[in-house]
Amino acid sequence: MSSTSNSPTGSNRVRIVVATSVMLTFISYWRAAAVILNDLGSSAFYACGIAEQAIGKSAPWFVLAVMLFAFAVRAVYVESCSMFVRGGVYRVVKEALGGTLAKISVSALMFDYILTGPVSAVSAGQYIAGLINDTIAIADAHGWVPAAVHHLFHGTPQVGVNTTAVLFAVAVTLYYWWENTKGIEESSEKALWVMQITTVMVVLLLGWSFFTLLKVGGHLPPFPTLANIHYSQESLGFWKHSSLPHTFAILGLIIGFGHSVLAMSGEESLAQVYRELAHPKLKNLKRTAIVIGIYSFLFTGLVSLLAVMLIPDDVRTKVYSDNLIAGLAMHMIGPEVLRLAFRAFVVVVGFLILSGAVNTAIVGSNGVLNRVSEDGVLADWFRRPHKRYGTTYRIVNLIVGLQLFTIIVSWGNIYTLGEAYAFGVVWSFVFKAISMLVLRYRYKGERLWKVPPNLHLFGIEIPIGLASVGMVLLSTAIVNLFTKSIATVSGLIFSAVFFAIFTFSEKVNRRKHAHAAAQMKEQFQLQLAESVERETVGIRPGNVLVPVRDYNTLNHLRWTLERTDTHEQDVVVMTARISQYGAAAYGLSSEQIFSDYEQTLFTRAVSVAESVGKKISLLVVPARDSWSAIAQTAHNLESSGVVTGLSSKMTTAEQAFALGSAWESIPEPKRQFVLQIVQPDDVVDTFRIGPHTPTMKNEDVVLLHRLWLNITREPGLENVHHHDILTEALTRFAHDYGARDREDIVKELRRHGVDGGPLPVRRIADQIHTVQPGPARSDRDDERRDDGPSSPKVGDSE
Amino acid sequence: MNFSVLLVTILEYMFVAGWAGTVVVLALTFVEDVGTLLDRKDENSH
Q1: ipTM reported for the complex, 2 dp
Q2: Do A452 and B29 lie within an 8 Å CB cutoff?
Q3: What pTM was estimated for this model as a whole?
């Protein structure tokens, strides 16, 4: 075999270095908190409205209790992350209770994730429809709606709230389906930006509400006693005809708590962002937990309380139950126009955060299903990449299909959606808490933090805190099974279907993987490495890195091999295994990183190398994004060049810019390299990545040379070099840019940047030639001693 | 006592006992959280 073999055993199998650590860009705890709050904070827009519809006016107390309890749930997540860096539900349940229960728990989690999208999108639609209707109603009250329109609609024109919400939800879901099919770029920057705007709204909302409360007064909602809990027909589910909910006071509290528990959905994201948190990780995780705890308590908890205190009962339950924050905005003191403007702001923020949650739901479910499929419990068919975009589009299609089905079946009924949503939320927490309890006895590895308090009796640890949280969750989840009939039936069917798919796929995959593993053993030898280092890969500095992704487009690899003497320069073929936030929750084994797809990809790469008769080294790198992976790998391997193919989504300049941006984020010291992008017709665009000598245009060289000719005629400046002139020019330019001429320079550069036209170098060069003709002289001797640009012959010939 | 009543009674005890323990968890973690927030060293908030 001509391609490769650095095999230590001397066999002829192709050695592949598999990096087991994901190449991550670490984020601060503020950014981590923003990512989580984009999901967790969105429930403030609908949680209390749903709870009040179920249990009456005392709902805000239950929402506040849920937000308080969420602090304790966070403690469970902190403990799990202190044990496993990827301490999400699947990993923890699998460790504690085995694969079957892990599959059940992940089915419940999928139900939670998939419903997040419809709930959020429909809620955003309800807010928009409410704003449209109220704006028209106010305009009509002022006589601004023409009589003809009034007549046409038989009264004040209004849009159907549920229909508008459904249309909006379908549009948003389809938009994010397309974005995720193309491959969306997730960024903590965007999450931080959304949370900054949300914070402005929260501060204004709370400040204005408290001011209103001071001015007009208000009454606290009735305390949650059995007499004050007013169950709706739907809120008792299978206990509709039972006397139990009306007899047992504490059962009433559990039912109320169960109807409010969806307010803390999104906690799972804490485990998912932990992997990305900057050092010191555990301390920053705790800080993140505190930030999201306080924020969601103030936002979801207090806003729910204030809404019930400030909005009159009849309006709140009839008009604003599905858009409570909008109702709050309309019932504060101040001019109507100002309140309407603030309500519009609430709707904009709601749109941003809720539609963001739709995307989070697709990305999160995609991440979970990807990892689960890598674990062999979902058929590989689902993971086959999109021909053009390379995304796992079949999983995205499945998720979005289920979401659209849910939106249409519920037809904008946020109450039904929210009730079903709570099923997934509470059962995934139950599995998590019980597993953590089991792991207290079964897990013997490192555990940096424990949920307090813990008693020690006769040498046995009794985890009182953990057990307490587990008991609250389990009792709530069991009561929910009886009181939420729709959620129970739909949740059980959904989970059962997913569980069946997982179990069937696992059996099929086990056979298939055994065959594939045998095949792979014959051809490839995996060598695991914690990180990518040149020594590990066994290559020399100055190598060429060739990133590959699609096995149908390996033309750039062929181009590289045909032009590289691999005896002198190594060629490293790498593929980046992209992991999203959701991926961080699961461990990556070599089989996960190097799956069927990578095997096919590398088999093709090896055939290309064999056909050219050259040697290649193979590398798989898990990463958060492909550009960072390429930049970091090129840096770590001391590569002199990177050769890629043309992206289907970007131009060559955009590809170079993306790689340059990724290179900028690598800490110093770092080395520059050349990027070559090979287009299908073998046209190659070359870029230098990192600071480098710019490519000078002929006119620039001519100008420099003419300046040099003139300056060296000055007495005492005969020995000046070309580079001395450049140094002087750049120093002057920097001085001018830093002082009085900055604006002029920027204006001039911008003008030429926009026009795309060249700076008037030739004209200046001609002027210099004209105004300073000087005596004729021979430059040939000077040229020999000058270390400047190599084009003075151009000047000489003129 | 029929099964439903027995189940509800058990769930009620679980819920109350769970909340009693959760209050202790919240009190203890609150003290620790204040310490974490006051400890500004190693902070990286970019």
Answers
A1: 0.92
A2: yes
A3: 0.68
